[in-house]
Amino acid sequence: MIESKYYKTWEQYKAEHPEISEREEKAMAKRMQTYEEMMYGFVMFLLI
Amino acid sequence: MTDIAALAQERTQIIADVLAGRIPKRVPVIPGITYEFAVEYAGLDLMTATWNPENFEPVCDKVCQDFYADVFPVIHLRFPALYKTLGAKNWVMGSQGFLQHPEVVGLLEEEYDEFIENPYNCIMEKVLPRIYKNLDTDPQTRSIVMAKAFYIFNEEFGNIGATAAKLSQKYGYGTANLFTAAPSAPFDFVADQLRGFRNMMLDVRRIPDKVEAAVKAATPLMIKMGWPATPLPNAAVFMPLHMAPFMREKDFARLYYPTFKETVEAFAKAGRQTLLFVEVDWMRYLDYLYDLPENTIMWFEFGDPKLVKEKLGKKHILTGFYPVTLLKTGTVQQCIDKAKEMLDILAPGGRYYFNFDKSPLTLDTVKPENLKAVLEYVAQNANY
């Protein structure tokens, strides 16, 4: 688990967006987290 | 079942056996052939061909036709479009079209504390704009540069994945991916592109406490980088090892090994093997390597294969040692004799697949007929 303002877990994102309904969450959580992980992987690739 | 499907199944099985520490039907042949070599072998101009992803499939197809392998053999990691878009200082185009890696310093000495406090924030705010000059600009322009770079990154890797899958089906390659991710040992990560080789060697002597704290801070980033998102058969995280051969053992024991071991152990606990590229000569560190999780895959560059087989060969998976330079200087017979020698030393008891000590980089680094002869020889003559 890393702490950074440039990387958010779904739980952290959700806490910052209380407007997200349970119904929306089911549809969006996995997809949103995938993009977060892809960007992390990309940034770290730039340093190898 | 078609012949191709049966071939793929057999190859997958021998790789699965080796990676699990079982004796396979024969020694798997898993060479890594760089895309740069493949481009030149296919008769294209390296300087221009690597700009066009459409070249990837026909270039790889030519290599797959001509060189034996049990797994899709081509490795492609460096993309001119990506590094040009970012204004990279760490990967710059050489005069022959090969991307060169000059020494860079992404993290200044006075920024150690910032990195230790929050490494990922520090990477985003200090390191990336220093190494990639097109990110050192106003936020709007930076966001556009990052968007282009991210698109190129996904386009290139998407193309590589699709081509590898297509050609694996065409040629009956085994199902295996030993490069699911490429995290560094944490010490190497801090050294390679943050402090640079020269600075890191000085830091180890002058400010070892800072180095130790920075390496510890980098460890969760490396673990996250290689963390297996989904279970995969015959999969490994690739970790090239850089700095240890240049260190004193007492510095290695304190600053390099603990977080390196922690990282490899984290992957093992998550069910993912690590493929270590043991660069240069690690003979004085064999006892440390022994203590890594069972079935860690170790691809050796230099050293004594007999000693390594004796000390590590009953616990870990070995490969490498075959001097790729011989493929440039030797005759076909000399190259085959060397393959026999490697097999005699490393194959008994299993836990070994064939690869060279490093990948042929460009066409002028080997004679293709030697490369072809050695791969064919091992494929035909290494049955258990």
Précis, in short:
The complex is a heterodimer of chains A (48) and B (384). Chain A has 48 residues and is mostly helical. Chain A contains two helices and no strands.
Please, could you describe this protein's structure?
The complex is a heterodimer of chains A (48) and B (384). With 48 residues, chain A is mainly alpha-helical. Chain A has one domain. Chain A contains two helices and no strands. Chain A has helices spanning 10-16, 22-45. Chain A is elongated. The mean pLDDT of chain A is 95. Chain B has 17 helices and eight strands. A four-stranded parallel sheet of chain B has the order 5-6-7-8. In chain B, strands 1-2 form a two-stranded parallel sheet. Chain B has a two-stranded antiparallel sheet with strand order 3-4. In chain B, helix 12 links the parallel strand 5 and strand 6. Chain B starts with a helix and ends with a helix. The chains are: A mainly alpha (48), B alpha/beta (384). The A-B interface holds A 1-7, 37-48 and B 86, 106, 118-121, 123-124, 127-128, 131-132, 149-150, 153-154, 181-184, 189, 192-194, 220-221, 224-225, 229.
Give a quick set of tags describing it:
heterodimer; A: 48 residues; 2 helices; 65% helix; 0% strand; elongated; B: alpha/beta; two-stranded parallel sheet; globular
- Summed up, the helix count of chain B is 17
How many angstroms does the end-to-end distance of chain B come to? 25 Å
Strand content of chain A: under 5%
Low-confidence stretches of chain B: none
* Domain tally of chain A: 1
Task: State the assembly state of the protein chains.
Answer: heterodimer
Topology, element by element:
The complex is a heterodimer of chains A (48) and B (384).
Chain A: H1 10-16, H2 22-45
Chain B: H1 3-19, E1 33-34, H2 35-41, H3 46-49, H4 56-66, E2 74-75, H5 80-86, E3 92-93, E4 99-100, H6 112-117, H7 119-131, H8 139-171, H9 186-195, H10 197-206, H11 208-226, E5 236-241, H12 249-269, E6 273-281, H13 286-290, E7 297-302, H14 305-312, E8 317-320, H15 326-329, H16 332-346, H17 368-381
Helix pairs in contact in B: 2-4, 4-8, 5-8, 9-10, 9-11, 10-11, 11-12, 16-17
